[in-house]
Task: structure prediction
Amino acid sequence: MYIQSLDDTLVKSLVADAVTAPSMHNAQPWYFGYARHSRTFTLSADLERTMPHADPTTRGMHLGCGAALLNLRVAAAHAGHQTSTSLLPDLHAPALLAVIRMDDSHEHVDESLPGLYAAVRDRHTSRFPFSERQIPENVRAALTAAAAGEGAQLTFLTTPHRETVLDLIMHAEGYNRMDAAREDEQRRWTHDASSEEPSAGIPDYAFGPVKRSGSAPTRDFAGRRTVPGRAYADFERWPQLASLSTTSDEPADWLRAGQALERVLLLGTLQGLVSSFATQAVEWPDLRWILRDPVSGTGHVHMILRLGYGPRGPRTPRRPVDQVLTIKP
Result:
């Protein structure tokens, strides 16, 4: 395997790959540091990009940072470098989420990571209608195994649990509309692309069409606003949904869930799948509890994923690397 020299150019490239990860409202709540002498990255939370109303515990923020961490690991492996990661290494510094050491000892090598790299910059959230084509069982099994490899459980929902989850999402969307603080918070992270050039948040061209019919869960980032010229569309009647959960519900679990989420998304992209998120019910504690698997009754749900076949979503903006990375001697 060709190993790229770990110079500043590669360090910046690795972080540029890391920040393609999804995050709540595309807030990109992360900050990276790199120390040349120890060949070590740090991943910290950017606490100015939290959402105190929709994400008061910062669980969603941790998920996004975990996804960025997985991307960094994938990009490093693609460049020929192994990594070892410590989550939440300092109890007195909760904003320090992870330390990632570039470790080329070739012990505990995850040989599947380099193969995910082709999807890092190709993965985009799609808020468009998907087809009714079913995901094959072997692909579902591979996605489930990918989540398990990061310490999380991916479960494809079946009826009647799926119908319960869809009802919860619909109710949560209504609660959000009635909550002025949450509405204002969401508006902060949405933009009119014709008049703004943001480096974070969701531009209106990525809202997707207004749902005219169908059962697919969609989040309308337009909120109470009307977007001129926005199309209407019929969404799938039988959406394919999966829940992502962990046994415990602590910050380290949230980071593991974020890594599992991104591993699933990257593998799904390579398999020709598109995806979107339905987090509305997860953001309300009482509703989140009911999302739990009715058979096992265990696990803490972090994400409801909508997966399937359909059009790719558009690229959304990312913060420049020099705004999210500091390199030290």
In short: The longest strand covers residues 300-308.
